[in-house]
Amino acid sequence: MSPLSNSYLNAEQINKKESFYPLHVFVCDNCLLVQLEEFESPQNIFTNYAYFSSYSKTWLEHAQEYVNMMITRFGFDEKSQVIEIASNDGYLLQYFKEKKIPILGIEPAVNVGEVAEKKGIPTIFKFFGTETAKELVSLDKKADLLLGNNVLAHVPNLNDFVKGLKILLKPNGVITMEFPHLLKLIQQKQFDTIYHEHFSYFSFLVVQKIFASHQLTIFDVEEIPTHGGSLRVYAKHEENQKFKISENIAKLIKKEHEFGIDKMEVYSNFQKTIELLKQQICKFFSTIKNENKTIVGYGAPAKGNTLLNYCKIGNDVINYTVDKNPYKQGLFLPGTHIPILDLEKIRVTKPDYVLILPWNLKDEIIQQINFIREWGGKFVTVIPEVRIHL
To answer: Which CATH number covers residue 284?
Structure first.
């Protein structure tokens, strides 16, 4: 049982009843889609959202590299239309804007989208699906490039979403979607990336099937390092002969088959693996407590809330966590009620250990608060295993 990972609490709410939901992952034995039940609607999860992409330097660099690469590869220019689904605070579209390429963001979270609008990024506040796609087409808006980073996993109605992509894409247009790769999740024991806001967990084999069922062909795929290992897929209309099928596709399918992503035992064994990791994590924290050492967190990411709630690590063990995002500061983590403070608190309290909750940004964070080494402070990550970074 776990709370919604982005349902941060204010001081008044921590004394009130909190909602917990089963965090139970299912695998369809027919199509092999790995999925959660929908306990809470996307409207309740994403309409006022706590995640702002621009607070991560690593993520901004990733976005800028993507924009430059897409312009070089496909020749997008001021005559092209770029549309991003789940455009967040404009972290990516700002780089297309700098190149004078027409842009449009689609973002359901008004509080986040308003930040993009202040940057001069036109944004419509809607969930994406066939209805939104048809509305845009009726306004003569179709995409030469239609992109979505880390949105596919957040969609409960996948068929409606992918059908919407088909509607909104120009005949020779390109779709790119980035999402965490299920193979990496299993291989690297990334159980903390499982939370209610992520309705689905994708292998390439499954995504290829979903797109093909809507007459969209994936013509290229890249393995990228973001979020602990993601895929970026490139799709086109089935009838579009402009783009050749890359050999990357056959290579990745072979890799997934060799790993056994199409076999049920890979999924059932994962539970046992994670229970062993949980024991290792809990043992580490009880050792710290017994030695009277102090540990605090860095970051308040959704994945951290799965980790802490599953391992039952609360504010009696972790005094506080810090986050650069002012939207989260002054709030408390759901379930564990660990307070979220400003970064400077670390200098004041001089903890023995800092647990890096967004482990995918480990290098950026270690560089940012390397000053903890002045008093012998150490960094800790616990995925895929407990590791102290000296």
So the answer is: 3.40.50.720
